[in-house]
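Colleagues,

For the teaching module next term, I've prepared a clean inverse folding example: a structure given as tokens, and then the sequence designed for it. I'd like students to try predicting residues themselves before seeing the answer, so please don't circulate the second half yet.
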């Protein structure tokens, strides 16, 4: 074999590798597209007279940006609230539409689910005859809760000051004379103003506001039950969340009472709010068109093996930092109530490549810029082999004996282009012992869970 042939054989793999990287921006890996949300106009609790016989069910699947080929099929289901053998209602398809048909008096849970089964919403329907009392919180609760229990903290936040927690109930009575048969009772740790509907929390533990009927044959007793967490803080805004996490030296217990979402999931195209139960994740300056994450994120030194970084920094002038970024620093229990925190505004690359509108790239001020190197083989800044270590984190759970309950954590809005997740980091990282994640959804990042 000639030296020229041998040289070509030796150099060929490197030529192919360089060629691949040169055109790699045009090679994308597509995975199955999906919807990002389901929207509807139902309250948590709806009431219908059995004389109405049936209602048409309506829900709208929401496509993520540019995910036009997503399967947007929705499926409806119904089950009794209690475990009676005979169903009180059923789903019937007519002319491509779904109807809830009433068969008997009672309460049912109606659920809609997408085709992949990862997004669902539920509400309760009470089918009545005669009179009825319906109770809803004025601020609609999450309809994606797995546990189905509502958790409140004993404190609300007013800036940096804590105040006694409170919220409002909306009461519907049908017909109006139903209220003539009702007395109101509360647990010892709350008070209720029947004129304004305001519930004031005075202590922790199981709680209720009960509308007790003196005429059970005409109207049933109805109550709103919830749990109050000792030393817990109700979080209604992004800055409330920062107060309990990144801006607290030891952390505070969070009882989440709102969705904190990506810009496109919070505002319509005309910049009006989509709904009253979703707030923006981040402090956005519309004039400068940028967020203030640099001054809000939590910085921590890698807990992974950084021996290579130390050796590299000793030998070369160009230093590799061992510091990582966390969107949220969680040090105490976290009650999610089924609400979503989506850190897309922080974790997702901010630029769109001009060569392909489906591919994104790092912007100059993006903080999530990929994982630290575990080891690199190569010289002059051209790595031949590179293995990665610890990555930036959306939700950094730091401490022992912490419980995350009914949370829905995401680092980004869904993208069917796999490469767009390269810099989105780890969704949840645990640094501690006896950490529990119960009845929760974790999704949408380069890595979902790291311990």
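(Answer key — instructors only)
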């Amino acid at each position: 074999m000639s030296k020229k042939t041998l040289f070509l054989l030796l150099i060929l793999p490197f030529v192919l590798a360089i060629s691949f990287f040169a055109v790699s921006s045009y090679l994308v890996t597509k995975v199955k597209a999906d919807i990002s949300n389901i929207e509807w106009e139902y309250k948590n609790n709806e009431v219908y007279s059995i004389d109405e016989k049936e209602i048409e069910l309506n829900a709208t699947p929401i496509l993520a940006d540019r995910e036009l080929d997503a399967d947007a099929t929705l499926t409806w289901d119904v089950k009794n609230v209690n475990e009676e053998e005979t169903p009180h209602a059923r789903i019937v398809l007519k002319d491509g539409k779904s109807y809830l048909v009433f068969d008997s008096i009672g309460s049912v849970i109606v659920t809609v689910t997408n085709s992949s089964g990862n997004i669902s919403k539920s509400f309760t329907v009470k089918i009545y005859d005669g009179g009825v009392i319906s109770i809803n919180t004025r601020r609609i609760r999450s309809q994606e809760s797995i546990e189905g229990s509502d958790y409140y903290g004993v404190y609300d936040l007013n800036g940096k000051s804590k105040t006694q927690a409170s919220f409002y109930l909306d009461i519907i009575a049908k017909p109006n004379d139903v209220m003539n048969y009702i007395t109101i009772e509360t647990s010892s740790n709350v008070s209720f103003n029947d004129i304004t509907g305001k519930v004031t929390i005075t202590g922790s533990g199981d709680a209720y506001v009960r509308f007790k009927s003196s005429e059970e044959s005409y109207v049933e007793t109805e109550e709103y039950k919830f749990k109050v967490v000792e030393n817990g803080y109700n979080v209604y805004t992004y800055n409330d969340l920062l107060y309990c996490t990144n801006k607290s030296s030891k952390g505070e217990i969070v009882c989440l009472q709102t969705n904190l979402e990506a810009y496109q999931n919070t505002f319509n195209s005309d910049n009006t709010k989509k709904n009253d139960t979703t707030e923006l994740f981040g402090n956005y300056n519309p004039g400068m068109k940028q967020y203030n994450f640099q001054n809000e994120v939590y910085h921590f030194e890698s807990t992974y093996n950084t021996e290579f970084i130390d050796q590299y920094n000793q030998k070369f002038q160009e230093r590799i930092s061992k510091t990582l970024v966390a969107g949220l620093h969680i040090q105490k229990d976290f009650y999610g109530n089924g609400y979503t925190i989506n850190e897309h505004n922080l974790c997702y690359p901010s630029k769109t490549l001009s060569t392909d509108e489906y591919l994104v790239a790092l912007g100059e001020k993006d903080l999530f810029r990929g994982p630290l190197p575990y080891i690199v083989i190569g010289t002059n800044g051209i790595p031949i082999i590179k293995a990665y270590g610890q990555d930036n984190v959306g939700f950094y759970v730091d401490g022992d004996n912490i419980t995350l309950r009914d949370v829905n954590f995401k680092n980004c809005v869904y993208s069917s282009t796999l490469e767009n997740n390269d810099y989105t980091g780890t969704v949840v990282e645990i640094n501690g012992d006896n950490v529990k994640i119960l009845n929760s959804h974790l999704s949408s990042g380069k890595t979902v869970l790291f311990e």
